[in-house]
Amino acid sequence: MPIEEAGDRAAMIADWGVPVTYTPAGGALLALTAIADAGFLEPAERLGTGVAARGLAITMQSADLPAGAGYGDTVVLESISYRVTEIHPDGTGISHVFLEHL
Q: Which whole number is the average pLDDT over 67-96?
């Protein structure tokens, strides 16, 4: 069930989120709050390896993403730098940002 109101989404992220910095390629650093999720499973067929791998993602308000956000942007979470590999907006005002360790 989607969270319908922007205020509800903001409260959810504020309650369960952690501070992160998001730096778009060629852009300025932004201090944001996002929910860290270390449990997503990368499908084996997409990796082309025949095995699945776990990865890190953050969940955040889509409105917090900078214009032009995408592959190659940098996210720092708990003093560790990551590269954005994909961004999946879910159509409800929330985006899932998939990361790989730098």
A: 94
Residue 47 has pLDDT above 60, yes or no: no
Sign of CA dihedral 75, 80, 13, 85: positive
Q: Where in the chain are the domains? A: 6-101
Contacts of 94 (CB under 8 A, 6+ apart): 2, 3, 9, 59, 60, 61, 62
Specify the DSSP class assigned to residue 2: -
Cα dist. 32→1, 13, 21, 55, 76 in Å? 24, 10, 6, 20, 10
How far is it, in rounded angstroms, from Cα 5 to Cα 83? Answer: 30
Residue 29 to residue 61: CA distance in whole angstroms: 17
Higher confidence at residue 84 or residue 102? Answer: 84
The reply to whether CATH 3.40.30 applies to domain 6-101 is no
